[in-house]
Every structure is written in C-alpha cells, then in structure tokens.
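FORM 12-B: Structure-to-Sequence Request
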C-alpha cells in the first residue's frame, strides 16, 4: 500500500522525477517524488481551482495562502498569474515542502514562500486576502474541516476562502459546513464533478 501523502515525514524510498503540465495558459515543470500527492501530474481539481480563481480575480498585489500546497503546483501557478502578489504555501509533508522550494526555483518565480506547518493549525504573520485549498480528502472530514476553520481565523475582513472538492467526496456537506463557519458560501462553478466553493470573511 502506498504511503499517505499527508504524513509529516514520509519514509518511502525516493524516486525523484520531473514532470511538465499546463494550467491557465501556463506550462510548468515540477520535481516530484514518492510520498507526495499527485506525483505523476498536476491534480485535476487543482487545475480547476487555479482556472476558476484566475477567471474571477483580477491581477493585484494580494497576499495569497495555499493550505496543503504539496510540491507547489497551485502556489507556483498563482505566483505566475499574479506576479505582484505574494503567494505562500503551507504544507505538513517535509518531502513535499522541500520539493516546492526547488520547484519555485525551477519555474523562476520569486514571489513565493513556504511554511512547514500543519495547515489546520497554521497562523498567518499577515492576514491574507485569499486562502485557497485543494484539501487532503483522504485525511478525513475532521482534518479538512479544520482547514476551513484555519482559513476563517486568519483571513483579513473581506478576505476569501476558495476550496475545490468533488461532489462524490462530500461537496454538498462541505458547502453546508463553510456556510456554518463563515456565515456565507457561494458555489462559484461546477466542472466535471468538481465544485469550487467560496466563502468571505465577515470579520
């Protein structure tokens, strides 16, 4: 059985390789390895999240945080699409965290930063304008609900959480939960079974 990607310290044997993938008109390269999420290609849900966000949010000098950033594809794509923004990835998996830093260099982006931390317990040094996440569904409902609570606790007033989740993996119940936590939720788009949900911080 393969090792769970949401472990903090993967022990599986290394198998470094490089992949290339496209999203939102970008072509990006990534170093990946065993013990990380979606090592063969950029996850489809992550692509839907990036493209929905880019379609809706104009270019600006934002503070953007990704919770559960893995080896960096969403963080790096958003940094490319929003060159005036500062994009920070928060990741518990040490192997993915190290790969993400290397992948920012590989893709020549300088407006990224990474924190090795549990996204559910993360505390921002500066309240972000946006939090985005493709949460680790296999980690269980309690873990991904804590991602939502963490976003709500850290966003600036008026800041937004953007979350992608498949309908079959609990999108309707997540929509309800985000409404409970934030007092509002919007279904931004649905595409091939993926839902993009957005909530706005009220305080």
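FORM 12-B RESPONSE
SEQUENCE OUT:
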């Amino acid at each position: 059985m393969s090792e769970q990607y949401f472990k903090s310290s993967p022990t599986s044997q290394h198998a470094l390789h490089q992949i290339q993938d496209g999203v939102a008109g970008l072509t990006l390269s990534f170093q990946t390895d065993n013990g990380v999420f979606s090592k063969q290609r950029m996850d489809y849900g992550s692509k839907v999240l990036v493209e929905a966000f880019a379609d809706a949010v104009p270019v600006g000098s934002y503070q953007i945080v990704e919770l559960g950033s893995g080896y960096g594809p969403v963080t790096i794509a958003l940094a490319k699409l929003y060159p005036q923004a500062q994009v920070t990835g928060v990741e518990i998996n040490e192997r993915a965290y190290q790969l993400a830093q290397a992948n920012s260099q590989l893709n020549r982006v300088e407006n990224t930063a990474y924190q090795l931390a549990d996204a559910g317990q993360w505390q921002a040094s500066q309240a972000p304008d946006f939090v985005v996440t493709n949460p680790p569904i296999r980690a269980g409902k309690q873990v991904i609900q804590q991602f939502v609570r963490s976003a709500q606790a850290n966003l600036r007033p008026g800041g937004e959480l953007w979350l992608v989740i498949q309908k079959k993996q609990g999108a309707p119940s997540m929509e309800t939960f985000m409404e409970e936590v934030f007092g509002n939720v919007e279904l931004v788009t649905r595409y091939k079974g993926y839902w993009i949900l957005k909530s706005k911080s009220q305080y």
